[in-house]
Amino acid sequence: MNVTVADGAGFCFGVKRALKIAFDAARKGDGPIVTLGPIIHNPQVVERLEDEGLRVVSELGEVDGGTLVVRSHGLPRRVFDDAASRGIDIVDATCPFVKQAQDRATQLEQEGYSVVVIGEEDHPEVLSITGNLERPATVVDGPRGLGEISKLPRVGIVCQTTQPLEHLTAVTDALLERTRELKVFNTICEATFARQESALKLAGRVDLMLVVGGKNSANTRRLWELCREAGCDAYHIETKDELEPEWFEGKREVGITGGASTPQWIIQEIVEAVEDT
Q1: Which of 14, 141, 159, 171 has its CA 20 to 30 A from that of 217?
Q2: pLDDT per residue over 46-99, tens digit each?
Q3: CATH no. of 97-188
Q4: Which class would CATH give 13-94?
């Protein structure tokens, strides 16, 4: 059985940066070190950080002093203010591309545009973007979510950084017919676009695709959806323990890709397990 790993599979720049910041903070050990939600969407990596002393909490009320490491997805402004009022030190590991999306949304608001964010409404990155604005933003995952936005004269668009380009173009096309003035910032991360293109290319020439990454990872789930939409048998797994022998019956070419928060050591374990199948 031939196994091919897609170009760009695994950690992106923003995740590598966030993990270095998180591991460095955890190893200093100055009081409790926490993240509000997981630093990245990969349970295996989060577990390793916990072993180093970095604890995941669901709210700041669980913390008495210490240090808050801001997750790669960013946090709303009110959380920074709350942490400061509690005497909690802040180490900001927000991905620079997420920070750019936050800044672009703020710019649009300050210029008088009604802000539309293309993404998943409850995703932590989207919440960090909308949570840095003074006024409510509209969050949509496609043209069908636009609703009454046609009544707004000036609209500005930003994207969750892991959205596919077709979502941005579809919403932009729809809004061009509904509003008098439209300003668009393409805040999709280039690494996300390249990873999706690479996965699609590989899915077009193999019998089976394994998409590796956290089940709570939006960009990994999107890779899996794209491979399936391309007509390829595809499975979304986190570790080699989820592999099923029947998936490989009659298969000769297997492709593997990983989300932006998937470490290389997990991808390599799966490669070796498939080659031994």
Answers
A1: 171
A2: 999 999 999 999 998 888 889 999 999 999 999 999 999 999 999 999 999 999
A3: 3.40.1010.20
A4: alpha beta
